[in-house]
Amino acid sequence: MVEFKISMIFLYFMFILLIMMLFNSLFIEWEIYMNESLDFGFLMIFDWLSLTFLLFLLLISLSVVIYSKSYMFNDYFKSRFVILLSLFIISMIFLIISPNVLTLMLGWDGLGLVSFCLIAFYQNSKSLNASVITFMFNRVGDSFIYLMMYFFIIVNSMNFVFFDMFFFNQIPLVCLFLACMTKSAQMPFSVWLPLAMAAPTPVSSLVHSSTLVTSGVFLLIRFNDFYLHPNFLFEILFILTLMMSSVSACLEKDLKKIIALSTLSQLSLMLLMLMEGFMEVCFLHLLIHAVFKCLLFLCSGLIIHSFNGEQDIRYMGNFVSFYPILLCYLNISFLVLMGLPFLSAFYTKDFFLEIMNLNSYGNLLVMMSVYISILLTIVYSFGLMYKLNLFFFSYSSWVVIFKDSYIKFSLFLLLILSLFIGSLFMWMISLSLEFFCLSFYFKIVFYFFFMLGILLSYVNMKNLYFQSSMFIGEVLNMNYYMNIFFYNFYKFIEKGWAEVLIGPGIYKNYGVFTFFYSYSQANKLQFYLLLFIIMVMIYIYLNSLISV
């Protein structure tokens, strides 16, 4: 496969470049235009931050492209899909390596425009409405970037290296925050993220893992040196988004929307880490989340395909009998999402909570919101795992089994990364060996929330069936005689006389008239001759009556 060989060669060079630039930074500038007031050039930055994220972006993109080769095999527009997917990845690459506002807009606007085309790929009203809403919210973020460009024109340069000149002017920083909040779907810009699930599953996996929604978080990580003090208003918005997305995921019945809402909660968690000053931990959690969330979406896409396009989890069940390996991948990715000890996400979540517990100045509101979000994550994750693994009632009667080697390779690659990336990279961000001495109760609080989440997930599953049978209470208060009256009305009126006089009766009674009228529109000579004879006969008859 040519695409696979090209991708592997490119990944090999990216890995070598990452090793070379681990402790250095490389700026490459192509000067396009310059005068006395403004210079414009194409600037690229290669450092450990951009190269690491670029390496993971290419790995995830490789898995998604290989997965799409089989997933979109029967699609008529699969070549168009691959082109749009490639443009989507290229736009994200521009955003990663660009410390210049104008070149940044190539990637920023490219993500918005190509996402519009990808979400509307299936060309129906639902996809079109979702793509328009997504595009409009992205244009709101673009307006903040354009406003920020105005301040860069003041200093006669478009490079972010001059961002420190705005240290005493908070407006460019606020514009950057608001633009990143629109891309990362933070409150009040959270509407478009669940709607973006109208796109094909490979697009959803790429959008929610390492491209569109993570671009805002990456930009804030890139320029975190310019906002040393956390903003209380932004923290409140992130906490509200965290709570809203976690609660909504517990109540949602759509499989893809549950995973999308989990993405929203993880993005809020990353932004809270960043606001508290843990840039390295936030970046590591961004990489971990990109890998296991892509695995989650790819597995869910196969499940939805296997249940003949059904996305409602109430119609799913006992999938382990059909494809146990796929359920194993899905369960591991959910365990990573929950932060199970010694899996990848555990190293970032537990480290963040331990530091917050150690510091006497730690934000209690942030800490409690993170604990509650972990609890709710366990609730909807275990509920979904129970439905897919152990629940034996399903409406689906047609199950398609996927045994393609391309899909197996992409899922296995993401599984290996999801299991070991946290333990490997945690040593890289912890350059000094530090020991944390916490009390016993602080150490077991995570496990307490873990067990409580399993219990609440069982209660939530019971509540699901209770909500499905809420109409039973209304039936108990219905009047017997009123039921008899409406039954007779339906039987004798709606299905009786109404059928004769109103429904088919109108067609039968006026069929002759409509036939005569349609025949008159044919412009035939016989018709007009017959009409003339009839009029003459009527005239003779009326004239005879008058003469009498």
From TrEMBL:
One of its GO terms (cellular component) is membrane. It holds the Pfam family Proton_antipo_M. The keyword Cell division does not apply. It comes from the Eukaryota. Its main location: membrane. It is a multi-pass membrane protein. Its EC number is 7.1.1.2. Residues 98-370 form the NADH:quinone oxidoreductase/Mrp antiporter transmembrane domain. One of its GO terms (biological process) is electron transport coupled proton transport. The chain crosses the membrane at residues 9-28, 48-67, 79-97, 103-122, 232-251, 258-275, 287-307, 319-344, 364-386, 406-428, 440-459, 471-490, 525-542. It is an enzyme of class 7 (translocase). It is found in: Membrane. GO terms for molecular function: NADH dehydrogenase (ubiquinone) activity; NADH dehydrogenase activity. Keywords: Membrane, Mitochondrion, Transmembrane, Transmembrane helix. InterPro entries: ND/Mrp_TM (IPR001750), NU5C-like (IPR003945). It catalyses: a ubiquinone + NADH + 5 H(+)(in) = a ubiquinol + NAD(+) + 4 H(+)(out). Core subunit of the mitochondrial membrane respiratory chain NADH dehydrogenase (Complex I) that is believed to belong to the minimal assembly required for catalysis. Complex I functions in the transfer of electrons from NADH to the respiratory chain. The immediate electron acceptor for the enzyme is believed to be ubiquinone. This is NADH:ubiquinone reductase (H(+)-translocating). It comes from Xenos vesparum.
